[in-house]
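During the no-cost extension, the postdoctoral fellow (Dr. R.K.) reprocessed legacy sequence entries with the updated structure-token encoder. One reprocessed record is reproduced below for audit purposes.
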Amino acid sequence: MTAQGWLLIIIFAVVTGLLVKPLGGYMAAVFTRPRAPLRPLGPLERGLYHLAGVDPAVEQGWLAYAMALLAFHLAGIILLYALQRLQGILPLNPGGFDAVSPDLALNTAVSFVTNTSWQSYGGETTLSYFVQMTGITVQSFMSAASGIAVAMALVRGLARHGGATIGNFWVDLTRGTLYVLLPIAIIAAVFLIWQGVPQTLGGTIEASTLEGAQQLISRGPVASQEAIKLMSGDGGGFFNVNSAHPFENPTALTNLVEMLLTFVIGAALTNTFGRMVGDARQGWVLLGVMAAMFAAGVAVIYAAEAPGNPNFSPLPIDQTVGEAQSGGNMEGKEVRFGIAGSSLFATVTTDSSDGAVNAMLDSYNPLSGFVLMANMMVDEVIIGAPGSGLFSILLFAIVAVFVAGLMVGRTPEYLGNKIHATEVKMTMLALLAVPAAILALTAVAAVVPAGLAGLGNNGPHGFSELLYAYTSATSTNGSAFAGLNANTPFFNLTLALAMFIGRFLVIIPVLAVAGSLATKRLVPASAGTLPTNSLQFAGLLIGTVLIVGGLTFFPALALGPLAEHYVFHAGALY
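Re-encoded structure tokens follow.
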């Protein structure tokens, strides 16, 4: 570890923190004020409502909100599936790509509509520009906007008392896209173009290598997709190696900005939450919990990667830090980012459920793999994707006040709402759906021939590849231990099922909780009310997250990355 590496981590954390309050205040205005925050886009917003036949003044109950969301996402899956199957006859296909196979097309459609971006394919060798732009990029916007919409619905449920509605899905979706995602994406895309990221409809170009050979270099409308993939929590790369490719992430500066884009909306939504419930400290407590878990994760990964690979020590391989090299475990990492830039990027993208990578996660040391999986197993509570992180940590907050209420023999309260059996049942349904899918599907894949056939390694690391795949898919992350050959009917279908469960079996209970809370009368705080805007509650919330995650996943983690860690340091290569 170096002072320069720690300085990068500190700069990232400070800049993210400085952006939280202004962006959080702006988003609060977007979702609470009737007039458009960006006046030039007001006519476009009203025009979209007119074309869709939506009355923005009419709000929905939770069931109508959920039905609108499900109908919208079902249409998105069908459209993206059709685009891939018809790719061969559609325009803007300079590579001449044929139709995508049915199982891969279904996997990809579910992946991007659910904000997961699991990719069992190489983008530059599989999808045309038309499908990348009208399918992948569009769904990156829509999936992120719908996540923000669900979060706003839950916040309204907590903030309102004695009502029956939680907002209008179509209005929340439109406003999130027009006023939050689109302006930031345009600015980010222009910045990336300035830094050297391509944005062109031209086909591949041929170049001569230093050895005199000829090489085809892929390009395309990369910058526009790169910008939204990062800030949406989507993470789907235009190229197969994602943000490790110099056309997606060319410089150390773009690496820093891409991490900021990945984190900033999820972090700022905590401030939006505090403003909308009328107590800014509530939002700061949630952000503090997220920050503490982020700091612990990045410290462990950086410490695990900086010493290097212990099995290389007897070999003539220099892993020390020097003027000409960053040292440490550089296998699978880009020299332009080094250990600190790679470790921070991996932490950010698994914390945020983004799934982008600037290094090959399969090459990280076992303890790093443990933390990367643990980041996702806590169900997006460490920043998370836009919206998903906020509503996930609010679910854990409900569990925390419920546990506190049990300890003192008092009906739990949160933000003036009595928490009863209905809210607890729906909360637990949402929180248990993810681990149930992860563990059940991993167990199946670990014993059936179709699952074992995809492994690139044996032993604990092979099990880690399976566990990581289903954790990433169910937690709507999309990154992978790339040693797993996942482009088979078995993996395409089971991972699609995992993504569907991880998104919709969480969102629907969240909306049910929002609808139930909105109907409750305000309960004034009393001497027996647990303060939820204090350090005490922050500690309780962290403990709740860690205990639930630890008790659920520790046995599986012990069989995979922890077992590999001890074998690794025993000097056994397998």
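The two ends are 28 Å apart (CA to CA). Residues 386-569 form one domain. The remaining legacy entries will be reprocessed before the final report is submitted.
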